[in-house]
Design goal:
This protein is α/β, with parallel strands linked by helices and 135 residues long. The protein has five helices and four strands; from the N terminus they run E-H-E-H-E-E-H-H-H.
Length: 135
């Protein structure tokens, strides 16, 4: 876990603990080639730049997942979106990280049907992860 932004305070330690607990709750196994998963919290400008470079879209986005195990998350977007989903910012950031993990296990969201399936899977996973007690 690397926090490379200072736009939004994020409690990194509890986030990382929840993400570790999520690995055993994933609906599908992670690919064998993934020995390390890197979560990187980045600012709006960096997210827009990466989004433009890799997905040909110059707008900022919430999360970008690379198949080699890097998941970029923008907490500033999470802060903006969280109220609409009734989540605290930290849980919205967690949701984005779980979304990235679901991509790594094979979920896609290119079509409306895929996006709907992924949305259901990530909300089920979020609920399970939030039930796990962290120390």
């Amino acid at each position: 876990m690397s926090n490379q932004q200072n736009e939004v305070p994020v409690r990194v330690r509890p986030l990382l603990q929840r993400l570790k607990s999520s690995l055993s709750l994933l609906p599908r196994p992670l690919p064998d080639h993934l020995t390390v998963i890197q979560f990187v919290l980045i600012d709006r400008a960096t997210m827009a730049q990466v989004h433009a470079s890799f997905l040909d879209d110059p707008t900022e986005t919430d999360v970008i997942t690379f198949p080699y195990g890097e998941i970029l998350i923008c907490p500033a977007v999470a802060r903006e979106q969280a109220p609409g989903y009734g989540l605290e910012v930290d849980n919205e950031v967690l949701l984005y990280a779980l979304h990235g993990l679901l991509h790594l296990v094979g979920y896609e969201d290119e079509t409306a049907a895929e996006a709907k399936q992924m949305a259901r899977a990530q909300m089920r996973l979020l609920k399970k992860v939030l039930e796990v007690k962290i120390r």
